[in-house]
Amino acid sequence: MEKAQREPLLVLDKNEEEKEEELQAQVDIWRYAFGFVEQAVVKCAIELGIAEAIESHGGPMTLSQLSSTLKCDPSLLNRIMRFLIHRKIFKAIPISQDQDLLRSKNLPSSTAVNPAFVSHHGYAYAQTPLSRCLMRKGRQSMAAMILMENSPVMLAAWHSLSAHVQGNDIPPFELAHGEDLWHYTAENIDHNNLFNDAMACDANVTVPAVVKGCSEVFDGLTSLVDVGGGNGTAIHIVVKACPWIRGINFDLPHVIAVASQRDGVEHVAGDMFVSVPKADAAFLMWVLHDWADEECIQILKKCREAIPKENGRVIIVEAVIEEGGKQGSLKDVGLVLDMVMMAHTHLGKERTLEEWDYVIKMAGFTTYSVKHIPNIVKSVIMAFP
């Protein structure tokens, strides 16, 4: 009898759970239908220079001030700001008519209000840590990455993703543009600059975190070659933090041709599949995920040949996908990056620890260590000959 009485309750609980899932699905489906809107409006905010205008002003700006500075239609700009405030990218701060606006910049963040009540009469727009990431300049800027990933060139590849999954051997980017990302970038200077700027803004965020959280990887080094180092931002940050290290920025000729001179850094052009400049250690950040296992092994072998057998090391800074979900919200970033690799490269991918173990050992390294760095998606893998 007791069992018969409990079963209907279990069925009822299940039905309630299903109802909640169905209700949530009706909310979530709109996010997938119009998910592109958020990225498009954020891109718009970068192109308009909204964050820079508020930062240069020195404090919150009214709609009138902001639209005048940016030379924008105030009614359209108001709607853009309402959208961005709702997503907590900017915040709205109340002002009184007899209050000096510049004094309001000292108000605590708790004074931010519900965006539904924002109007151009009683509130001003203020910066947040997130909005400062949309500034084109600055240590935390991710503007170039957003502009690059949301450029027509990169977006075009996504429309061929399903065809690729269904067995089309031509990668999505190549299907969209007739050649792979690397050849396209080499032949199109604007995209080359955009790509290098995007990698540089990531380096500005990632490398200081590596230097702070894993400084031991640079101990005992007198020289370091950054393989696929782009415009030299990453190696310059390392050399600035560790001035005893001679830095070598190594990349393809068309990349090195536009790289600016940096103190303590020598730019060298070449092909990492052929040879890598000699140094105490090789540094690889966001390079190996662009390639299939076979290419990764080949690159790592060339790096192993370039470093001393005694005390040499290869420093890999890449995502390590945790199957069990131990990385929290950053795991989702890693999974997103894996989809980006599928869309924009031939056989590139983000790797699990088991997959990293395979390519490192197949390249002839005897031991390696892995260290997760707080608050960034990438980990530091140090491999030894």
TrEMBL record:
Transmembrane segments: none annotated. Pfam families: Dimerisation (PF08100), Methyltransf_2 (PF00891). GO terms for molecular function: O-methyltransferase activity; protein dimerization activity; S-adenosylmethionine-dependent methyltransferase activity. Signal peptide: none annotated. InterPro entries: COMT-like, COMT_C, COMT_dimerisation, SAM-dependent_MTases_sf, WH-like_DNA-bd_sf, WH_DNA-bd_sf. It comes from the Eukaryota. Residues 158-365 form the O-methyltransferase C-terminal domain. GO terms for biological process: methylation. Keywords: Methyltransferase, S-adenosyl-L-methionine, Transferase. The active site is at 289 (proton acceptor). Residues 30-110 form the O-methyltransferase dimerisation domain. Belongs to the class I-like SAM-binding methyltransferase superfamily. Cation-independent O-methyltransferase family. This is O-methyltransferase. It comes from Crotalaria pallida (Smooth rattlebox).
